[in-house]
Design goal:
Length: 268
Amino acid sequence: MSNYNKGGYSSSQGQGFVQDSFGNDAAAPKRTYIHTLRPVTIKQIMGATQTQADGDFKIDGQDIGQVTLVAAVRAINQASTQNIYMIEDGTGVTDAKKYPSDHDDTDEISSIILGAYVRIVGTVKNFNQKQYIQVHSIRPIINMNELTYHNLEVLTVHVSATRNKMGGHGAPSSSSSTYGQHHNSMHGVTSTDTHMRGGNDDVANSISDFIDNHPGKESGVGAHRRDIIAAFAQRLGGEHKVNEMLKAMEDDGHLYVTEDDDHFNTTH
């Protein structure tokens, strides 16, 4: 679905470390960089923490390297040294700063206009106590299904990274490797957590967690039925089973419908 190799950028699956030395001086300072690619929202970026001023950023308690997100362009400030895009994804607003490169596709860059949705790959930086994205690659979204896929990937990685904190089961998994598995199998979206097992209460709790971490939660819209089905159909045994579970949770007072019969929010 997504091609991250544009502009000379190549994503790394899994987690690796490389030393970046400055010059040929053996005594020169070196820093270790984390080579991961994690799908995120702007809210997660703005809430990313550092243990020290020049340390790595953390999301869900895990160090992050490179991030990818899908957002709408709300403002563009072009200059000779850099392009600054103000982007918004429904969870927040931040700046994405792109320095010109010989590898840039000029036609692609010129097609990024106000209101366009874009896929960005970059790293999280901080200036004046505010996070922003230093862009490695940016391209317009052609198929809006990519937005839905991205949001599901964000939720999948978040649930995987925080599973133990939420009292779930199964061994913890790397957020970057989880994303890699789902990115490589994007013929469709698989279960949010195929390692989780249990009865109906466990499934209901997982669905509640899914909705609570959905980008639509804060706006009160909640999660769409199709997103919940995409995440849990494999685990429950089919679309009709997910619909039965949603009806049961609604009847029991755990969920309620919002703007229409296909949007669900939690009651807690």
